[in-house]
Design brief:
Blueprint (H helix, E strand, L loop, with lengths): L1 H18 L24 H5 L29 E8 L5 E12 L2 E18 L5 E20 L4 E14 L2 E16 L4 E15 L12 E9 L5 E7 L32 H6 L2 E10 L2 E8 H7 L10 E9 L2 E11 L2 E11 H4 L7
Length: about 350
Amino acid sequence: MMFLKKTALVFCCSLLAGFCQPVDSNAQIGGDNTYEFLNLIPSARISALGGKMVPVRDNDLNLIFGNPALLNASMDKQFSFSHVSYYADIKFGHVGCARDIGKGQTVAAGMHYIGYGDFTERDFTGVEVGNFKASEYSFNLSYARDLRDSSLSIGAHLKTIYSSLAEYTSVGLAADIGLNYFASKPLLDVSLVLRNAGSQLKGYRDGETEPLPFEVQLGVSKRLAKAPFRFSLVLHHLEKFDITYTDPSKEGQVDPLTGEPIEYKITTADKVLRHVVIGSEILLSRNFHIRAGYNFQRRKELGVESRLSTVGLSWGFGFRVSKFLLSYGRAAYHLAGPSNHFTMSVNTGELFKKRSTN
């Protein structure tokens, strides 16, 4: 209990530190950190539900990448693989597996990867001198254990990070720490996670290091007892209240009729909603689910005002074929096009189980 109290105290202090910052502090969160690939969406299900943590305790191994406390014994011998063909020939994905070690404890191992493709190298005069590649990897070890009769669980990821960008290389170490509370009677999950707490051990340049994309997330999910629906609400970047982006193209604009400068205002409601991601699942059967999500920040920052279209919306589905669970997620980021996520999961214990002979 003393360990649990100390962990809860760390979470509370982190939340208070974020929300007590002055509102007029620097708002932007993008471009300030290294290893931003750690924030890429690791699975089709997470993509379909808005791209952030999915606070649901079930047997989906992919959910632990949002919150390691969701790792549990029902994921024993699960193997999962995800792949995304992203923009501009960028490809990323992850692979992972889990093992129940008894006494309410479960471990997992996995790897995130991203390949930025092949590039042409030129000298300062523009003459081609060769080619180079760029890629980044995160090798993950996870551990979770149940507390208080499995209603409360705690977990952690340890991430060893390697980045290679042409002749520049970097090594880092990060950790995620999470809590999850599951109430079986109201079918309610509450999750809290600290993500990417760590540092760059070796910078791209000697003596220079950059911060990691640290983040605090809080999520709640509720499944209806007498209807096949589950709803989720996730609040992200709780360590910082104002995460709005000031568009430089809107600064210095002048009203053509009055000649007065146009003041670009961001309301408090806008600042609050950019922390919100909502999602829902229709659980039609054990073997087929439909999913949808909405990310307020994504719509505000990536939408084109003249044609917002479906930016910020995401959807997908999951279905079982024999012993394989296949999932698809599609998220609209910009008018330039969506991302398509594919995930395959299988329980290797069932896949290779020997048939009994009479």
